[in-house]
Specification:
Layout: E1 2-8, E2 13-17, H1 22-31, E3 38-42, H2 48-60, E4 63-67, E5 71-75, E6 83-84, H3 86-89, H4 99-106, E7 108-112, H5 125-133, E8 137-141, E9 144-148, E10 157-159, H6 168-178, E11 184-188, H7 194-205, E12 209-211, E13 217-221, E14 230-232, H8 237-249, E15 253-257, H9 265-273, E16 276-280, E17 285-289, E18 297-299, H10 311-318, E19 324-328, H11 338-344, E20 348-352, E21 355-359, E22 368-370, H12 374-386, E23 389-394, H13 397-400, H14 406-410, E24 417-421
Bound molecules: uridine-diphosphate-2(N-acetylglucosaminyl) butyric acid.
Residues 23, 26, 94, 120, 122-127, 162-164, 167-170, 191, 195, 308-309, 331-332, 374-375, 402 line the site of uridine-diphosphate-2(N-acetylglucosaminyl) butyric acid (EPU).
Length: 422
């Protein structure tokens, strides 16, 4: 198992380019199931979650190969085992996004029911409700979701909202099932995340007829078949936001290339509000901080609200703020594993239900800490950059799920991160 040793404090300075989005890549890889033949996806990051997804697709019968570094070729000519096995699904919950496309293509599928994870229960009831509305018969058997639609799926008007608003992968699943359904489907309360829009745009390139992309109301006219596609994945807005916080927390100066500020308005607004300068710069941006970190009130929400996937990183940043901030988590109410670890580094964070009161401290100090999930570990890396001394982070495999060799990206910018195998 690898650990990180991070020597701080440092100043992050220079230029970094953002990779393709993990959360776009995963459902779009699953979309390749819908069109027999060879699809090519470009700008796919080299992450362990992508490797797991490739393994999942191979088990179904697809041939998946990485070409030219950032491209993936997925040949889905043969799918002879429409089963998402527990052994893979338990490693990565996003595996659930094969359910919709497999059902549309094979009409009978079995996918392991995902378990809970470090950020909460994460049920899939809304995915199943949506697929049932399209005519699938769904049963649960020995921990597996068994979905059947022997005569194919039928379009329908579906309300897909849940107790926490829209669902990203639920929308992806129902949309991917509906593109090959008979007739028109309307998804109301669809997720509006840029990753869902990327998937919809990719499906349209494959021959689907989806309108309302990027809005909460998607209209899908079913088609008989789709064609394989070549598609470039959008930049990862969460990776971009993490780099922004790296610059902000270290009083740095960072040029971030390949970043769509338009997808990040809520994040940029909060950064500017706390005294960080973010300037658009030729397909990317320039981020600097000169003065103190001011306080903020942040509530996470589905897009276009502030993303839950940057909540932990902003908590690390506001921990060094001048005064009290409040962070309310409205998407995953239990996504707070980083609080205790940040407090071990001298932060003053207190959880009150779904809210966290962040009393700013003058400095963070190095400590041995444990990564618990992907974004929590990113927050610990950021805190380590700013803290006095050498922070040791255990279980960095969590961070490798969503950030490609983060130490090799941050070290040229002034970080002092050493990866060691223990
Ligand atoms: N929910 C339900 N029932 C469902 C589905 C969701 O109650 O059937 C609830 C969830 O428990 C949660 C809320 O609805 O409270 C939103 O969950 P959503 O379904 O949108 O999450 P997801 O699709 O499983 C994706 C990302 C997450 C990101 C969330 C929210 C991927 C692969 N994952 O998950 O990314 O946090 O949307 O934006 O796209 C990450 O990258 O670190 C990560 C966790």
């Amino acid at each position: 198992m690898d650990i990180f040793k991070i020597k701080g404090p440092v100043r992050i300075k220079g230029t970094v380019a953002v990779n393709g989005s993990k959360n776009s890549s995963l459902p779009i890889m699953a979309a390749a199931i819908l069109a027999p033949g060879k699809s090519v996806l470009r700008n796919v990051p080299n992450l362990s979650d992508i490797t797991v997804c490739a393994r999942l697709l191979r088990k179904l019968g697809c041939k998946v190969t990485r070409v030219n570094g950032d491209s993936l070729s997925i040949d889905s000519t043969v799918i002879d085992n429409p089963v998402g096995e527990y052994e893979i699904v338990r490693q990565m919950r996003a595996s659930i996004c094969i359910l919709g496309p497999l059902l549309a293509r094979c009409r009978r599928v079995k996918v392991s029911m995902p378990g809970g994870c470090a950020i909460g229960d994460r049920p899939v009831d809304i995915h199943l409700r949506g697929l049932r509305e399209l005519g699938a018969k769904i049963t649960l058997k020995n921990g597996y979701i068994v979905a059947d639609a022997p005569k194919g799926l039928r379009g329908k008007e579906i309300f897909l909202g849940g107790p926490f608003g829209s669902t990203v992968l639920g929308t992806a699943n129902v949309m991917m099932a509906a593109v090959l359904a008979k007739g028109r489907t309307v998804i109301e309360s669809a997720a509006c995340e840029p990753e869902v829009a990327d998937l919809a745009n990719c499906l349209n390139k494959m021959g689907a007829k989806i309108s309302g992309i990027g809005s909460p109301r998607l209209t899908i006219e079913g088609v008989k078949e789709l064609q394989p596609v070549e598609h470039k994945i959008i930049p990862d807005r969460i990776e971009a936001g993490t780099f922004m916080v790296a610059a902000a927390i270290t009083k740095g100066e960072l040029k971030i290339e390949n970043c769509r500020l338009d997808d990040m308005m809520a994040v940029v607004d909060k950064l500017r509000g706390i005294g960080v300068t973010v300037e658009a710069d030729d397909g990317g941006c320039f981020v600097t901080r000169k003065g103190p970190i001011k306080t903020a009130d942040i509530t996470t929400q589905p897009y276009p609200g502030f993303p839950t996937d940057l909540q932990a990183q902003f908590m690390a940043l506001l921990a060094l703020g001048k005064g009290n901030s409040v962070i309310i988590e409205k998407v995953f109410p239990d996504r707070f594993m980083h609080i205790a670890e940040l407090n071990r580094m001298g932060a003053n964070l207190r959880k009150e239900g779904q809210a966290v009161i962040v009393a700013g401290v003058k400095k963070l100090v190095a400590a041995p800490v444990m990564a618990s999930d992907l974004r929590a570990s990113a927050a610990l890396v950021l805190a380590g950059l700013a803290a006095d001394g050498t922070t040791v982070i255990d279980r960095v495999y969590h961070i490798d799920r969503g950030y490609e060799k983060i130490e090799t990206r941050l070290n040229p910018l002034g970080a002092k991160i050493v990866r060691e195998s223990v």
